[in-house]
Amino acid sequence: MSEPKKVGRRTFLNYAIAVVATGVIVGAATYFAVPKGEVTVTAPGATVTTTKTVTTTVTGTPTTTPPTTTSTTTTTTSPSGKPVKIGCVTPLTGPLGSGGRTITKAFTMAVEDWNNTVLGRPIDFIVAAAETDEQLISEAERLITEVGCKIFVTGYGSHVSEVTEGVFEKYQVLCIDWGAWSDVLREKGYKWTFFLAPMCVGQYVPDMADKLVNVFAPALGKDPKELRVAIMCTDLYPYVGTGIKNRLDSLGLSNILVDYITFTEPVKDFTEIIERLKEKKVDIFIPVVSGAESAALLVRQSKQLGFKPPVFYAAGLAFEHPDLPKLLSDAPELLQGIFTHSFLSATIKHPPANEFYQRFYKRWGEYPSVHATEAYSAMIFLLECIQKTGSDDPAAVRETVKNADIPTGVRVIYWGIKFDERNQNIRANLFQVAQWQIIEGKPQLVCVGPPEIAMYNMIPTWKS
């Protein structure tokens, strides 16, 4: 396939910086509170300057990041007073560990961009590692009752939100949910959790199904009723696959779904499924895969077994994961051309997002995932609300959050913010079609649609 033609031009950094070897980040004014009685390491408060650069210290590699202020004064001050504590309970190991570590990098970067201080006080960003439901609940309660956290950002994964947000409601502590797409959460009547991202079944899934009709059918030169679509859905997210099916049914297109396969992760061999799909002669293949390891295996075996549908259109999840190109580092070309239906990333046509994309790569040596972009934007929003409130009292900050009115196109994540009676952000209503493309020798997941936010043209895989 030929190199894609760019719609907009952006200079990508050609170098990476060292990342903490263990994958555990301890940033300035940040510490990890780990379970099972292990020692908690607390980094010292950072010196805050109002010059044009701010230096923070991270275990492993000292890094200089741009400040949020444009003041030219060189006065140096140190934040004083009781720290403002912001908590997060998330997996840092296990199947969701990589995602947890990625969002922690984004949160840390946002705190650094605020010079590690808010209200003139140091920020303690406290991440508690937890995997099981029991650990998630006990760590959330420990941070509230023992550590004194009254303000939280959610961890990685909708299930983590489903487990922990009941705890936040019980103790009446503020939670900013940056990315959970669970529709069920919006129906619980929570008063202390605010949802920044769109819903899955209510918004994401119908939009993805509609793209089959108004984007890929025309690209393939077919009437939508002539399409042959196959869905392969993990049993971890059955509502994604069934949601797409139900949307097709409502459009009168139930006949185009020629196969629907469910599977259990982790997977050791996709051969049987792939051979079955080959027989169906599908035009559009929709995999719903949770784990990056499973996604990498699916891509490898599809190549080995000669399964190459004209459109490989993944439902986000593992196919947006930053570990996926690492798992395919020996054959990055295998990713070329794969589409995903995604929440908005930092590769849309939006200068604040593009600037963040470059800075994140410089800071951590990897490109920010969709989730990292969401997490960074959420932490910035939270800090803005605390500052505007003039207090870190959770009830007071909650009122500032609830009354937020931010127009679309201002934030890094692009979505505006305005909450309805369910605390759902009604301005999170735009999705992207992204595609893995090899750019400057590296696989990158870039926005190729819709046209108003696309940075790159699609690679027409159906012409290969």
CATH superfamily of the largest domain: Response regulator
Indicate the mean pLDDT. 85
Q: Gap between N and C termini, in Å?
A: 7 Å
Largest beta-sheet characterization: 7 strands, mixed
Determine the number of helices (DSSP H or I, runs of at least 4 residues). Answer: 12
Strand content: 15-25%
CATH architecture of the largest domain: 3-Layer(aba) Sandwich
Low-confidence stretches: 1-76
Give the beta-strand count.
19
CA-based shape: globular
CATH topology of the largest domain: Rossmann fold
CATH class of the largest domain: Alpha Beta
Main sheet strand line-up: 14-13-15-16-17-18-19
SSE-based structural type = alpha/beta
Number of structural units classed as domains: 2
Please state the CA-atom Rg, rounded to the nearest Å. Answer: 22 Å
> Helix amount, in percent?
25-40%
Overview features:
19 strands; Rossmann fold; 12 helices; 464 residues; 33% helix; 2 domains; seven-stranded mixed beta sheet; 19% strand; alpha/beta; disordered N terminus
Report a brief summary of the structure.
The chain has 464 residues and is α/β, with parallel strands linked by helices.
Describe the secondary-structure layout:
Elements lengths: L29 E4 L7 E2 L5 E2 L4 E3 L6 E3 L10 E2 L6 E7 L6 H17 L3 E2 L2 E9 L3 H15 L3 E3 L4 H14 L2 E4 L5 H4 L6 E3 L4 H21 L8 E6 L3 H13 L6 E7 L7 H10 L3 E5 L3 H13 L6 E4 L8 H5 L11 E4 L8 H14 L5 H20 L4 H9 L29 E8 L2 E8 L15
Parallel strand pairs: 1-9, 7-9, 10-11, 11-12, 13-14, 13-15, 15-16, 16-17
Antiparallel strand pairs: 1-2, 3-6, 4-5, 8-9, 17-18, 18-19
Helix pairs in contact: 1-11, 2-3, 5-6, 11-12
